[in-house]
Design brief:
By secondary structure, this protein is of the alpha+beta class. The protein has twelve helices and seven strands. Helix 9 crosses helix 11. The two termini are about 50 Å apart.
């Protein structure tokens, strides 16, 4: 739906630039506020200058001055009948002579005329003052609206400058140029927070793409190894003119071993891809202690071959998560402790709850690992030099364990032991553990 015609017409003429819209918004708000203030001021001034009535009675000047100018004493009736009525004429009066007495009606007319003139002058002055106030206020409001629009244009430009920097950085950023950063300075406001968040996102993307490229390169190299072994075994066997059944059987065993290695690597890669998504398909109750017992039972033959001593303290450690992934994580940790051990070595496993948090701790003997190389062990296809193994691994065990733990909100911490070997502790967050 495109909306009614009036809305489409409004959108056609409405500015598309945020800076222009902000400028119009600032000017419009100033105009509305100024108009309201002008109306209030005009109303207060108009109410303080009341309209005078033309028919007002009584003098609007001091009583003594009014009586001196306009009112004279009234003659007695007896004297009024003997002397004619004296009314001041338009000519000048004789010096030293005051005008004769004024009749009562003439005095009233003088009084009303004076009041009417005073009221008319006051009303005219009031209208003139209100007219000037309205005119100059409207002119000033219009001028200040234009000034506020200009100020809004400048202010909005400064406010949107970080947004333009973010846009330009996002436009320059790509898979090959993820090293771009905004590095916005200034006050820690919402725009600074947005820029820092964008920089963090670029940092994570850069690390993710770098890890992906490294992972693809390492996976290609690791998958090429069993293929090369199979090709070599087949070519050497076929190059012999008289091949015996024993030679063909040995070739088949080598090919089968290489196929199993490739299959295990592909399965590990798929598991790592699923756990890296961070989304759990199933979430059920899970006991770490039970899973550790099962993993130790599976590795019992290898443990016996190496003569390893296993000390276990398996208390209930209930949590929730994907059972298939958690089983794989624990199996990888046990398998890592067995494979990278030494003949006659030891393994210690503990499970339980600490402050309502389920945990798993597993340690094993073996050669000493430099502390600075421990984080590298959790990268795909990384192996520390000097670590022994009862069988060839694919270099994904600890990487898968860390990825599965992260998907379940668990923290995985590893440290090298002074006497040799590695200790790994997995602690699940309280939000996933069950009471």
């Amino acid at each position: 739906m495109t909306g009614p015609p009036s809305r489409r017409w409004f959108r056609r003429f409405w500015p598309q630039k945020v800076r222009t819209r902000l400028t119009l918004l600032y000017a419009g708000l100033f105009l509305a506020a100024g108009s309201a203030l002008l109306g209030l001021t005009y109303g207060l001034v108009a109410s303080s200058l009341p309209v005078r009535s033309v028919a007002a009675k009584g003098p609007d000047m001091p009583r003594a001055e009014y009586n001196k100018l306009c009112l004279q004493p009234q003659p007695s009736p007896s004297r009024a009948s003997k002397k004619p009525l004296s009314v001041p004429g338009p000519g000048p009066a004789r010096a030293g002579k005051s005008p004769g007495p004024v009749p009562h009606k003439v005095a009233e007319l003088c009084k009303n005329a004076y009041s009417a003139g005073l009221s008319a002058g006051a009303n005219s002055q009031r209208e003139h003052a209100l007219s000037d106030l309205l005119l100059f206020s409207v002119i000033g409001l219009g001028a200040m609206t234009i000034v506020s629009g200009g100020a809004g244009w400048v202010v909005s430009g400064r406010v949107l400058r970080p947004v333009r920097a973010i846009t330009q950085t996002a436009r320059r950023a790509s898979e090959q140029h993820l090293g771009e950063r905004i590095a916005l300075t200034g006050a820690k406001d919402e725009l600074r927070e947005l820029a820092d968040t964008f920089d963090d996102m670029l940092e994570r993307l850069d690390q993710a793409f770098a890890a992906q490229r490294r992972f693809v390169a390492d996976a290609s190299h690791e998958l090429r190894t069993p293929l090369t072994v199979m090709r070599t075994a087949i070519d050497v066997t076929l190059a012999k003119p008289s091949r015996t059944a024993e030679q063909l059987e040995a070739m088949a065993v080598r090919v089968r071993r290489s196929i199993d290695r490739a299959d295990a690597m592909i399965d590990a890669l798929l598991t790592l891809a699923v756990s890296d998504r961070g989304r759990l398909a199933d979430s059920e109750s899970f006991d770490l202690a039970t899973a550790v017992r099962d993993a130790l039972d599976v590795a019992a033959a290898q443990i016996a071959d190496l003569g390893l001593r296993v000390d276990s303290e398996l208390d209930n450690a209930p949590t929730t998560g994907d059972p298939r992934l958690l089983d794989r994580m624990i199996a990888n940790l046990v398998d890592n402790a067995v494979c990278h051990n030494e003949t006659g070595g030891w393994i210690t496993v503990r499970t339980g709850k600490d402050d309502g948090t389920a945990f798993l701790q597993i340690a094993n003997g073996g050669p000493r690992i430099p502390p600075e190389t421990v984080p590298m062990l959790f990268e795909p296809f990384r192996r520390a030099a000097g670590r022994t193994s009862g069988r060839d691994g694919v270099g994904l065990g600890l990487a898968i364990a860390r990825s599965i733990g992260s998907a379940h909100g668990a923290t995985l911490v590893a440290r090298s032991l002074p006497t040799g070997g590695l200790e790994v502790q997995v602690a699940f967050s309280g939000r996933t553990s069950m009471s």
